[in-house]
Write a structure and sequence with these properties.
The protein is mostly beta strands. The protein is built from no helices and eleven strands. The mean pLDDT is about 95.
């Protein structure tokens, strides 16, 4: 599966962005899909994701501000980010895998397929 992430950019504190993760020519039905992010000098961390069965989860740091969704064809996963803060500045990556069990969706090493990353910069 090839994943293409897009939608990053520069935004002021309190602003919004929507990231997209498109799977090339195939459905992500049956895949766990997730967004991770990596800030400069920090480790990559889980942001939000869908389990293989369609349940969702998100990190405490983004609850109430970020929403993960997908299109009906399940070829694209979105991350709507509202009320952005400077600490949200990072490179955002999408990931997918068909083997992940629900308890592992927050674990980056469990994912085999990754997009290239898109930079989100939030200015104060």
């Amino acid at each position: 599966v090839q994943l293409q992430a897009s939608g990053g950019g520069l935004v002021q504190t309190g602003g919004s962005l929507r990231l997209s993760c498109a799977a090339s020519g195939r459905s992500l039905n049956g895949y766990a899909t997730a967004w991770f992010r990596q800030a400069a000098g920090k480790e990559r961390e889980f942001v939000a994701g869908f389990t293989r069965s369609g349940g969702s989860a998100s990190a405490d740091s983004v609850k109430g501000r970020f929403t993960i969704s997908r299109d009906t064809a399940k070829t694209t996963v979105y991350l709507q980010m509202n009320d952005l803060k400077p600490e949200d500045t990072a490179v955002y990556y999408c990931a997918a895998d068909r083997q992940i069990i629900t308890s592992s969706i927050r674990t980056q090493s469990a994912y085999d397929y990754w997009g290239q990353g898109t930079l989100v910069t939030v200015s104060s």
